[in-house]
């Protein structure tokens, strides 16, 4: 394992070095939180793919393939569909808004009265997303170094918190690009063909496994529909995803680069399912489907290659973890803490002359410590993450997309929609169970109905607010703290 250890150590050291480099470049709020809004198509596509394809998409995607065959691709496939939909229909408008958070967009659209509640919901979602990613370090480091779960979480979490705190979005962008390349080589170009060959090829896989393993709908129509509601719609409104959209150099980069990232996700989804199906042939009696990835890597790959593929898994977890962490800290600082301090500012505008980079860096450090502590305390946060996703989609999907596409939506309608959707989801999870499908179904319907009815029953949004909104959508807003710099043209 010495060669594998060397590969991993070099990779981790490189992550920290990029954090140090990013610290030297992140001199303003815009540079620190959204990479100066200067990413070109190559960097943008790579980092967008990296943020959405995390440990769940890699280890979990292979596990679903092990359990259900090719239809196990649907979870990650719906994530790719969400990125495609976001990029084709909304990314250009989102990028032109020149804001930092989803809540700031709601304030702009509805007149400054919708941001606080949405900020709390978004913060809970990003926090739990960061926690689940951090817990995944335990699985990977256990394979690598056979260390205790707590030590693994502290080790992986400390590295992510360090480079994220030092360099902000610039450091995360650079590390995500490396992680994107490592994942592409490790999973798509190495593990996929090796797994299929070791399993005897597709003909042998078909001979060894039941026919339902090769049914594209074998996982079940209701499960696929639920994946669409949670993951496809979740990709449309998550702060971690929007914060990447804000980094785009132009609305065209946001649209076309995001479409490329979404397409990559579709390929990655199929690859994970095929790897899992191959693992089922080789190891038909694993105690846990989620162990399929680590088992096939450990037993079937040569040294050096094994280290690279494990680095790919580590890259997948780190990219999602760092993206969720900076999103969590951004929401906590800009949407919650600043309001509690009474700092009410126009969306997208600077708070004042104090050191905003220092403040945001402090919040990443604090949120990172909270994430590590929660990750150590919890053994399984699947239910907590489900609660967060249900609240996010059930409470925020309708007012966010409604604000983007329906002029008649009002602030009162948006707030009522958030409350109705959120309370419905909570009540239905209590009634049906946290992992049931009904809460997200009925929660979304309640949110939509209340949004439409209350908006129509209340006075239209003030004309001045809508005029300011249209100015932002038209891209006529300047970035207040943008420092002159050469665009990242090679990306």
From TrEMBL:
Instruction: Please tell me whether the keyword Transmembrane helix is annotated for this protein.
Output: yes
Per UniProt, the keywords (alphabetical) are: Cell membrane, Membrane, Transmembrane, Transmembrane helix, Transport
Main localization of the protein described in the UniProt heading: membrane
- Pfam families (UniProt xref): SSF
Record field: transmembrane: 6-23, 43-66, 72-95, 116-140, 152-173, 180-197, 217-237, 258-279, 308-332, 362-381, 387-406, 413-434, 440-458
Q: State if Membrane is listed as a keyword.
A: yes
Q: Could you tell me the membrane topology recorded for this protein?
A: Multi-pass membrane protein
Question: What PROSITE patterns does the database record attribute to this sequence?
Answer: NA_SOLUT_SYMP_2 (PS00457), NA_SOLUT_SYMP_3 (PS50283)
Where in the cell? Answer: Membrane
Q: Where does the source fall among the domains of life?
A: Bacteria
Similarity comment text for this entry: Belongs to the sodium:solute symporter (SSF) (TC 2.A.21) family.
Protein name per the record: Sodium:solute symporter
Could you tell me which species this protein originates from?
A: Streptomyces luteolus
Upper classification of the source organism reads: Bacteria, Bacillati, Actinomycetota, Actinomycetes, Kitasatosporales
């Amino acid at each position: 394992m010495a060669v594998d250890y060397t590969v991993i150590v070099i990779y981790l050291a490189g992550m920290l070095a990029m954090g140090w480099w990013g610290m030297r470049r992140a001199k303003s709020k815009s540079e620190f939180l959204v990479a100066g809004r200067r990413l070109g198509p190559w960097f943008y596509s790579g980092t967008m793919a990296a943020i959405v394809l995390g440990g769940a998409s890699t280890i979990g995607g292979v596990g679903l393939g092990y359990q259900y065959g090719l239809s196990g691709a649907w979870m990650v496939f719906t994530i790719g569909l969400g990125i495609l939909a976001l990029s084709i229909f909304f990314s250009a408008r989102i990028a032109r808004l020149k804001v930092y958070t989803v809540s700031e967009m709601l304030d702009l659209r509805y007149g400054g009265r919708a941001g606080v509640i949405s900020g709390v919901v978004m913060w809970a979602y990003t926090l739990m997303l960061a926690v689940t990613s951090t817990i995944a370090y335990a699985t990977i480091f256990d394979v690598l170094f056979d260390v205790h779960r707590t030590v693994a979480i502290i080790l992986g979490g400390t590295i992510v918190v360090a480079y994220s705190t030092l360099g902000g979005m610039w450091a995360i962008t650079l590390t995500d690009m490396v992680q994107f390349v490592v994942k592409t080589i490790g999973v798509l170009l190495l593990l996929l063909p090796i797994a299929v060959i070791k399993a005897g090829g597709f003909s042998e896989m078909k001979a060894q496994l039941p026919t339902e393993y090769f049914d594209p709908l074998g996982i079940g129509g209701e499960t696929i529909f639920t994946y669409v509601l949670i993951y496809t719609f979740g990709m449309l409104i998550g702060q971690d995803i929007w914060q990447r959209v804000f980094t785009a150099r132009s609305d065209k980069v946001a649209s076309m680069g995001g479409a490329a990232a979404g397409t990559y996700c579709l390929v990655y989804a199929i690859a994970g399912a095929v790897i899992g199906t191959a693992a089922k042939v080789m190891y038909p009696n694993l105690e846990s489907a989620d162990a399929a990835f680590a088992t096939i890597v450990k037993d079937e790959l040569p040294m050096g290659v094994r280290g690279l593929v494990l680095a790919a898994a580590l890259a997948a977890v780190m990219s999602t973890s760092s993206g969720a962490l900076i999103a969590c800290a951004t929401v906590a600082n800009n949407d919650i803490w600043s309001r509690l301090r009474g700092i009410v500012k126009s969306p997208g505008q600077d708070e004042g002359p104090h050191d905003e980079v220092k403040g945001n860096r402090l919040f990443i450090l604090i949120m990172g410590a909270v994430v590590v502590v929660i990750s150590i305390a919890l053994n399984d946060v699947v239910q907590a993450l489900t609660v967060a996703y249900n609240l996010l989609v059930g409470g925020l999907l309708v007012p966010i997309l409604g604000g983007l596409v329906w002029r008649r939506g009002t602030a009162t309608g948006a707030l009522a929609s958030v409350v109705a959707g959120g309370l419905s989801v909570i009540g239905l999870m209590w009634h049906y169970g946290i992992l049931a499908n009904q809460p997200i179904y009925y929660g979304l319907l309640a949110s939509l109905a209340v949004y439409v009815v209350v908006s129509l029953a209340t006075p239209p949004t003030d004309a001045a607010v809508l005029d300011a909104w249209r100015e932002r959508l038209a891209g006529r807003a300047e970035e207040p703290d943008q420092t002159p710099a050469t665009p990242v043209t090679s990306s």
